[in-house]
From TrEMBL:
Keyword entries, A-Z: Cell membrane, Membrane, Protein transport, Translocation, Transmembrane, Transmembrane helix, Transport
Quaternary structure annotation from Swiss-Prot or TrEMBL: The Tat system comprises two distinct complexes: a TatABC complex, containing multiple copies of TatA, TatB and TatC subunits, and a separate TatA complex, containing only TatA subunits. Substrates initially bind to the TatABC complex, which probably triggers association of the separate TatA complex to form the active translocon.
Protein name: Sec-independent protein translocase protein TatB
Taxonomy of the source species: Bacteria, Bacillati, Actinomycetota, Actinomycetes, Kitasatosporales
InterPro entries: TatA/B/E, TatB
Membrane topology type: Single-pass membrane protein
Chain positions covered by the region annotation Disordered: 104-148
Annotated Basic and acidic residues bias: 128-148
Family per similarity comment: Belongs to the TatB family.
Biased composition, class Polar residues, residue ranges: 108-125
Annotated function: Part of the twin-arginine translocation (Tat) system that transports large folded proteins containing a characteristic twin-arginine motif in their signal peptide across membranes. Together with TatC, TatB is part of a receptor directly interacting with Tat signal peptides. TatB may form an oligomeric binding site that transiently accommodates folded Tat precursor proteins before their translocation.
């Protein structure tokens, strides 16, 4: 529960507790706080038990920690083989090749037209892919990855 409290912080808390409550009242305060924490835990456990019993037998293994989206995803991804399958599926897509083909088509560096001649009614390249003059052809337009 208190994994991130170091020795210095714990010592500071003890000294402050002694200064605030005094050495005579400190044991009684500690007992009262411990009893209060016990009652809160008991109330929480009873509420969880009531909710599980109301949900029915199909939710008997339901954990309230799963309501946190990060915990839910981590639990289900680590327990199944879907993660391996997702990695294989992701590696099968090569978007860089497709992106390079599109960039070449836009910049008219591809020698084969991507639109058949019958579409635009001529035997040459489509209007969008006609060759530009030499000065414009050497300049590559800026590429904005966020815009695409």
């Amino acid at each position: 529960m208190f994994n991130d409290i170091g020795v210095l912080e714990l010592t500071t808390l003890v000294v402050l507790a002694v200064l605030i409550f005094g050495p005579e009242k400190l044991p009684k305060v500690i007992q009262d706080v411990a009893g209060f924490i016990r009652k809160i835990r008991e109330f929480s456990d009873n509420a969880k038990h009531d909710i599980r019993s109301e949900l029915g037998p199909e939710f008997k293994d339901f954990e309230f920690e799963d309501l946190n989206p990060k915990t839910f995803i981590r639990k289900h991804m680590s327990e199944s083989d879907d993660l391996r399958e997702l990695k294989e599926l992701r590696s099968s897509f090569d978007f860089s090749k497709d992106l390079n083909e599109v960039a070449d088509a836009v910049n008219d560096t591809d020698s084969t037209p991507s639109v058949p001649a019958a579409v635009n009614g001529s035997s040459g390249t489509p209007d969008l892919l006609k060759k530009r003059d030499q000065s414009v052809k050497d300049e590559r337009p800026p590429f904005d990855s966020d815009a695409t």
